[in-house]
Specification:
The protein is an all-alpha fold and 261 residues long. The chain is built from 14 helices and no strands. It has one domain (3-259).
């Protein structure tokens, strides 16, 4: 059974409060949520605001949360221009199939989550704020999420202004910077200059050799399969991670060649 299938079965006792919990409950049912939450706002905390779980997540729960968040935010991005077309739905399904190697039964569960998030009144910024809390101290995972959302938005070869505005808002609400967004976009649109290479490593053009090498080593370690599994990225993202490390290697090689070290 895949990662989303375990949510459907409800056998792990996985419980997400807050906006993401509302989406899971609405899409998959009360057998997961332990009741019938308000699917528009999610369970409420003592102050009346969305109740967000604050204790530590184990690696499997973090992987589930990351995947549900990506699907939910992808739905909001698809709807950013006012409607979700059949072509956009097919494009997202193809993304899951080709980029994440997700089998048909898992994609059916993903479609239920996508549809629930698309119709939900919960704004994308609420998902982003919850992720900022859940993945505090794991900024690279949040950067990966921005890259994935841009990949989904660019699947049709065009980044709609409304999609760009929403992804920028999500970037800010997750506590990332405009530079994080720009760097993610540059890695997906490499040009003749080496801007994309420096953006991939997250260093400035005037960074010295030691800083460049340190950034490369940090990213190479970050995308090791064992590290990813413990930081919220499941086997579904294996292909994404492999492509990411190839891009990191290519960027490092390009800078080394230019710098001569």
């Amino acid at each position: 059974m895949g990662l989303l299938g375990t949510l459907l079965g409800g056998g792990l006792g996985f419980f997400l409060f807050g906006p993401l919990g509302a989406i899971i409950g609405g899409a998959i049912g009360s057998n997961v949520m332990g009741g019938a939450p308000d699917h528009r706002t999610g369970p409420r905390g003592p102050s009346g605001g969305p109740r967000i779980r604050t204790d530590a997540f184990n690696p499997l729960e973090a992987q589930q949360a990351f995947l549900v968040a990506m699907i939910s935010l992808a739905a909001k991005v698809a709807k950013a221009d006012g409607q979700v077309t059949p072509d956009e739905v097919r494009s997202f399904d193809n993304f899951l199939r080709l980029n994440l190697n997700m089998p048909a039964d898992e994609r059916r569960v993903a479609a239920r989550i996508f549809n629930e998030a698309r119709e939900s009144e919960i704004p994308a910024r609420d998902f982003a704020r919850q992720l900022r809390t859940m993945f505090s101290g794991q900024r690279q995972r949040l950067r990966d999420l921005i890259t994935l959302l841009l990949m989904i938005a660019l699947a049709d070869g065009h980044l709609h202004p409304a999609e760009e505005a929403l992804i920028r808002e999500v970037t800010r609400e997750m506590g990332l910077s405009g530079l994080d967004y720009d760097n993610a976009l540059k890695t997906l649109r490499p040009e003749q200059s080496l801007d994309w290479a420096y953006a991939t490593l997250g260093v400035l053009h005037d960074a010295d050799e030691s800083r460049i090498k340190a950034a490369y080593r940090k990213l190479a370690k970050e995308y090791h399969p064992d590290v990813l599994a413990n930081k919220g990225m499941s086997e579904d993202f294996k292909k994404f991670a492999a492509e990411k490390i190839r891009t990191v290697n290519n960027a490092y090689d390009a800078i080394r060649k230019e710098r001569g070290f």
